[in-house]
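Exercise 7. Predict the joint structure of the components listed below.
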Amino acid sequence: MHLTKKGEYALRALINLGIAKEVGREHVSVSELTGLSQLPLKYVEQILHQLRLAGYVDTRRGKYGGYFLCKPMSQIKIGEIVRLLDGPLAPISCASQTAYARCSCPDEAHCGLRMVMVDVRNAIANILDRYSLADIVEVTMRKMRRDKIPLPFSKPERAAGRA
Amino acid sequence: MHLTKKGEYALRALINLGIAKEVGREHVSVSELTGLSQLPLKYVEQILHQLRLAGYVDTRRGKYGGYFLCKPMSQIKIGEIVRLLDGPLAPISCASQTAYARCSCPDEAHCGLRMVMVDVRNAIANILDRYSLADIVEVTMRKMRRDKIPLPFSKPERAAGRA
DNA sequence: TCTAATGTCTACTAATTCAATAAAGTATAT
DNA sequence: ATATACTTTATTGAATTAGTAGACATTAGA
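Solution:
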């Protein structure tokens, strides 16, 4: 029942990009994104690349470039991201809705294991397909404000005031 | 969010041992247990060994020997088994109740990812720690009877009537 | 125009986990 | 005795996970 680092890093990156957007930052470099939690830069880069191909983020290249969300946060469901990076939500293939495949039991209709795992997959999907990135970003920012934690990305990378 | 073959085989074996017990079979050999679904015998043997060390099953050795449940089915929760064979239920270590460990975020109290994953872990645990082997065996057997599917292990291995 | 910062893309690899196999040994019913 | 079955430890092959490396393209600003 495990989320891989890949899925984890993807979600962390998206959440941070979401906060950045809310705070008015146009885009964020990978190094800034990974710096907060000391994540492996090149690995996260790969993951962001994948998110870009899937249409969740886009980039601006060159100096002072970076990544940014290119889809409304409310339309990015956590479940989609987990499926994209880590595969189906169901613990066992025969319980998957989006990637069904037979498994080893001889008779699915009378398989107790499948029955339980279908329940589990539905419970997971009910959470992950309901929560959107917008929900998470909102709650996170609210908590940070309440506890007076400074929001990340608050000050633009290049002393924006000037000019 | 994946259950490994190890966890899967363990649960299948326990469910089958549960049915066997209900049907009056004293014990079942590994080959009989794996035969139903063509599972790898030696691998399942290892898993049963582990279940034995953990006190869920016991064995009778020698000819006509085999495995049997040595704990009331109602006291075997599915969650315990999954944890034993596959590790914590939580998708991410910082969301685990039984095996908590810090993860990469700098501030857990304000981590959106953790928040979601705690929900997911609770949803999973609510199912797997509530269902017992007895529940699953009961439902499975009821369905099989309803649909007139012959129950496995119905006839004892050696023509028991004699003697 | 030059340079530093940044994303792009492909290839490679190290580590870990998963899934299984092998084999020599022990116990027991008949 | 002997066939059947569990016991135990070692080994291995395959897949997945998690990352590294490096050459290249693009852009901002001095």
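Discussion. Residues 29-31, 45-46, 48-49, 59-67 of chain A lie near DNA strand C (CB under 10 Å from a C1').
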